[in-house]
Design goal:
Shape: elongated
CATH class of the largest domain: Mainly Alpha
Distance between the termini: 39 Å
Radius of gyration: 29 Å
Number of strands: 0
Strand content: under 5%
Number of domains: 2
CATH architecture of the largest domain: Up-down Bundle
Largest sheet: none
Order of helices and strands: HHHHHHHHHHHHH
Length: 285
């Protein structure tokens, strides 16, 4: 018997068939379509008039979507059974499974609010359905450790400018600089470039040179630090793409080759039987 994987469990033909269904394009497109429909229904449910007219249809669509998600999870786990570690070892599968379980919470009683919030999570399943989106999210997660030093640099810059702003402008503009906390909030407003010139002009009415403080902070806090964040993300994106390319170009293992040979052998046997049946039918006629 041909063994597959490192756990020594045999892959049965019906499991291969189920895996083929799960990996097929039409199945993936069906799930994506249901996710999109679910997202539209969630948005439409915010209108009381639409809910009054089509509320029963929305309930039916919700049940269909939940049933489809349950069937999808069952098929994926069945395809790798009894090696469920291969299913739960994938972070995206765990996310999909969690969303599916939360979708089973009844939208009544004290759990109604949690059930509605869980329905919103289904929209996030679009991320797991598209490989490109999965790559971007994985890159952002990988970038978190590298962003630590950038965040520390940004905190140092914010702290220095907040203390300096308090001492320079607290008397002329107490609304924005009367304490360290308010100063930090003001700097956050400035770094978002939201009406930051109004704050600057209020200080320049007393100190004409105040523009130096504000412009230097905008350059350091916005352009330099934000570009550092982007650089970290792009660097991790290139690494993720390189790893994905390496996985695609790696040599197959012995077990994978044997599994493919087994699948090819089974296909040839089925084809031979079909040819024999066709020859038999032709001779009988």
């Amino acid at each position: 018997m041909i063994k597959a994987g490192t756990e020594g469990a045999a892959v049965k033909p019906w499991q291969q068939a189920i895996q083929g269904i799960v990996d097929s394009g039409w199945f993936n497109n069906l799930i994506i379509g249901l996710i999109i429909v679910n997202g539209l229904v969630i948005g439409l449910e915010t209108d009381p008039g639409i809910v009054a007219a089509f509320g029963d249809w929305f309930v039916l669509l919700n049940q269909i979507v939940v049933g489809a998600f349950v069937i999808e999870a069952v098929l994926k786990m069945t395809a790798v059974a009894p090696r469920l570690g291969r299913y739960f070892g994938n972070g995206w599968n765990c996310f999909d499974f969690t969303v599916t379980v939360l979708s089973l919470i009844p939208a009544v009683g004290p759990l109604a609010t949690l059930a509605r919030l869980a329905r919103l999570l289904r929209v996030l399943r679009l991320v797991s359905a598209f490989p490109e989106l999965r790559l971007i999210v994985s890159t952002l997660i990988r970038s978190i450790p590298g962003m630590g030093h950038v965040v520390m640099l940004m905190m140092v810059i914010f702290y220095i400018y907040a203390v300096a702003g308090f001492h320079l402008f607290s008397e002329v503009d107490p609304t924005h600089w009367n304490s360290l906390g308010i100063s930090l909030l003001t700097l956050f407003r400035i770094v978002t470039l939201e009406d930051w010139t109004d704050v600057m002009y209020a200080s320049m009415e007393v100190y004409p040179w105040a523009w130096v403080y504000y412009v230097s902070f905008v350059v350091c806090g916005t352009f330099v630090v934000i570009n550092l964040f982007i650089a970290v993300v792009l660097n991790n994106l290139d690494e993720a793409k390189a790893e994905k390319l390496q996985d695609l170009t790696r040599e197959p293992t012995r077990s994978e080759i044997l599994q493919e040979l087994k699948a090819t052998q089974d296909s040839l046997i089925r084809l031979q039987k079909q040819l024999e049946n066709a020859e038999r039918n032709r001779s009988a006629s």
